[in-house]
Amino acid sequence: MRSPVHRYRDIERQATNLQLEPYVPPSPESPSAMWFIRDACGIVCGVITWFLVLYAEFVVLFVMLLPSKNVTYSLVNGMIFNSLAFLALASHLRAMCTDPGAVPKGNATKEFIESLQLKPGQVVYKCPKCCSIKPDRAHHCSVCKRCIRKMDHHCPWVNNCVGESNQKFFVLFTMYIALISLHALMMVVFHFLYCFEDDWTKCSTFSPPVTVILLILLCFEGLLFLIFTSVMFGTQVHSICTDETGIEQLKKEERRWAKKTKWMNMKAVFGHPFSIAWFSPFATPDHGKADPYQYVV
After folding, report:
1. How many CB atoms lie within 10 A of CB 7?
2. Nearest Cα to 184, choosing from 281, 47, 53, 48?
3. pLDDT category, 25, cuts 50, 70, 90?
4. So what EC number does this one have (predicted)?
5. Fewest beta carbons within 10 Å, which of 63, 167, 205, 267?
């Protein structure tokens, strides 16, 4: 890893080269425009995610709940599972279609830098790939082809980067997927016990072999995603509490930002103050009290 002095010199040479570039006024992107990454791998992974959730929905409803003789059991578990599935898919959509914190392209021009009124000795960070002035803690994503503020990682399952503006939705997505996976596994266990005690032909509208295959596939899917999303959820919460993104941990970057309490870090991601909106994928967190990111050092 380069020392801070070498990094400073590299950035200084990049800032000097900016004088050769023609001035192109940055084109501000409309905040109402939907954010969507046209990446084939990410689109396929997103479709697979929805398919797996809908498959679990099908098995839970038509194999386990509707054939059940206990109406109360079916209603309660059906409401819980469908509510969690709806919140999971809504969180997935918000994580996929929300701008993660992209830095405007093409603003690293001589005129724009002069408008910042830099003091002597101040240095601008420039990304040579997207020709943008990088705020502190921003990193370039090769898939999104943009610099992303507080980029944690690029997740193909949501076809988007996880960054400053959509980390809440990604955390909710992993949490709700883990919860519906756990719920589905519990219902599969109860249904197997019920079918063993009763006649297999009466515990499902499908034939016994088809019922077993559907339940085994759901059990495998639920166990796999329970482990994966639980680990991802724990990793994200730890990253938020320590205020250090996955890339910063991987690169072991020097900490140059103020240290805050874990509760303040949580509020910076999920919004101020704490409320039930923290768990809603439809509530956009208020980052108004978060520390602003500086374009110069």
Report:
1. 14
2. 53
3. very low
4. 2.3.1.225
5. 205
